[in-house]
Amino acid sequence: MNKTLANQFESLEAQRKELLSSLGSLPADKLNNHSEGHWSINQIIAHLIAAEKLSVAYLQKKILAINEVDNTGIYEEIKMIGLIISQRLPLKFRAPRVVVENTNQTTDISQLEKEWAFAREELRQLLEKVADDQIKRRIYKHVRAGKLNILHALIFFREHIIHHQPQIKRLM
């Protein structure tokens, strides 16, 4: 695997494990408690998993024709900066319908942990297929930012978790 992708992936995994570890001592009722119009901790975790799984599925399809797409450039770097800023600000966004429709409704944190570990393993296997000269190819499509590269996808996954961490901390 490319060193940059490997470093980003390892950082993502550490972030995921730290988040799940922080939830380990919480009782099920705390993990599933939510008020009208707000998500529970488990629903937030399920949302993060769904977003990643759908992204990986899209990337798996696009990687088959990776040599037929152009590289990203300065325009995509600017879009990525905007995306990072949007995730760091305390703004609320409506989750894309496709993510909501594919979000697991389980109330069992151990099941969510297994599902996320499986999704991350699929991501790791995908990253191993990306050659050094293919990292900048436009194969990731963010719902709002549009076409980006696979490194941008990993950065978004990190930022997406960061975006939801204050929400999780409030519920803890």
Entry keywords:
single chain; Four Helix Bundle (Hemerythrin (Met), subunit A); 3% strand; two-stranded antiparallel sheet; mainly alpha
Mind explaining what this structure looks like?
With 172 residues, the chain is mainly alpha-helical. It has a single domain, classed as Up-down Bundle (Four Helix Bundle (Hemerythrin (Met), subunit A)), CATH 1.20.120. The chain contains seven helices and two strands, in the order H-H-H-H-H-H-E-E-H. A two-stranded antiparallel ribbon has the order 1-2. The longest helix is centred in the first third of the chain and has 22 residues, at 41-62. The radius of gyration is 16 Å and the shape is globular. The N and C termini lie far apart (37 Å). The mean pLDDT is 95.
* Residues in helices, as a percent range: 55-70%
What is the overall shape?
A: globular
CATH architecture: Up-down Bundle
CATH class: Mainly Alpha
**What's the CATH topology label?**
Four Helix Bundle (Hemerythrin (Met), subunit A)
User: How large, in whole angstroms, is the Cα Rg?
Assistant: 16 Å
Compressed to H and E, one letter per element, the order equals: HHHHHHEEH
Number of helices: 7
Distance between the termini: 37 Å
**Could you say how many structural domains there are in total?**
1
A few lines on this structure:
This protein is mainly α and 172 residues long.
SSE topology sketch:
Elements: H1 3-23, H2 28-32, H3 41-62, H4 74-88, H5 97-101, H6 109-128, E1 140-142, E2 146-148, H7 150-171
Antiparallel strand pairs: 1-2
Helix pairs in contact: 1-6, 1-7, 3-6, 3-7, 4-7
